[in-house]
Amino acid sequence: MAANKSVLVLPGDGIGPEVMEQVRRVMGWFEAKEAVRFEVEEAPVGGACYDAHGVSIQEETMEKALTLDAVLFGAVGGPKWDNVPREHRPEAGLLRLRKDLDLFANLRPAVVMDAMVDASTLKPEVVKGLDIMILRELTSGVYFGLPKGEQTLEDGTVRVVDTQAYTKDEIVRICRVAFELARKRSNKVHCAEKSNVMETGVFWRQVSAEVAKEYPDVEFHHILADNCAMQLIRNPHQFDVIVTDNLFGDILSDEAAMMTGSLGMLPSASLGAPDPVTGARKAMYEPVHGSAPDIAGQGKANPIAMLLSFGMMLRYSYDLGREADLVEQAAQNVLNEGFRTADIMQDGCTPVSTEEMGNHLLAELDRITA
Ligand code: IPM
Ligand code: MG
Fold this sequence. Notes:
The protein has twelve helices and 14 strands. The protein has helices at 16-32, 47-53, 59-67, 90-100, 124-127, 168-183, 199-213, 225-234, 246-259, 304-316, 321-336, 354-369, and strands at 4-12, 37-42, 70-75, 105-111, 131-137, 145-152, 158-163, 188-193, 219-224, 241-244, 269-271, 283-285, 339-340, 350-351. A hairpin with a 5-residue loop joins strand 6 (145-152) and strand 7. Helix 1 crosses helix 10 (304-316), helix 8 (225-234) runs parallel beside helix 9 and helix 11 (321-336) packs across helix 12. The protein is globular, with a radius of gyration of 20 Å. Residues 77, 91, 94, 250, 288, 290 line the site of 3-isopropylmalic acid.
């Protein structure tokens, strides 16, 4: 039995708890196989936490997030909390986790599995074999820049401000992650910014070029973020790693996700800096999709993005590469066999519910390890 691995499970709102339930079953499978023992702590977050405790995340939950090996996050938000003050909105809990754990590197891999080629709204020849990594800066930029909020000018005019700001160190550290990742992939980095309009864009362009000099073996390109959005649709195969700021990364990763057929397929890992002594890093794993309140509670949600996020946790936080491979293989096989949740339904395939998808994933894990 491998050493105990602690994890803070935060299912959240909407479809979050439904997809997390399937991952809990897969965790149970690994434990039954005596492959890993998970020490699970669970807590509410987002709207669910607001309803129960009047805040989007509790202090005791933050403490656990800071001490346990990893955080596994479902999804937060929904129309129910639209009028809650911003500091208590469901999203605030998520943003606080990212910020307080200093999870600056958000890895959003968009991989098109063969079985999914026809599920994409793009032509099969455009997306076939696609494997790109959107690397999003996650703890700075316009999400966190100050001042933020409403101001009243002297003449009584109301205006609302968000601030986009980056320090050099913030850009350097995310760019280094991009180049390190590229070396293990196809050795190419694009840095997306708006240096034609934004001062922070000019800075991103300068600093990324400086960092690129440390990695002369890696092919490097600057690209304007709007052009990047267009090129992703036109010819995504030109990309390997795309590094970008918090807001552009949010947008480009939704776009990249759709190439894979559905937002319900895309996992993510948010990593902090490695500890200089132990090498361990804070980490949170979450699907790129949101809480999908329109389909919540109906058993329709696709658990694969959540499951693949769990797979990333096994790989990046627990160094369990073989187990992570098993998770990915099981997902791929189930899709090859034609089982589909509604979001990825295709002609000739078998429609399944969230739980049935979980059943097939477990059966597949049994089969491939028999
Ligand atoms: C994401 C989400 C979040 C974000 C929301 C839920 C705050 O869209 O993780 O991409 O904007 O970062
Ligand atoms: Mg988003």
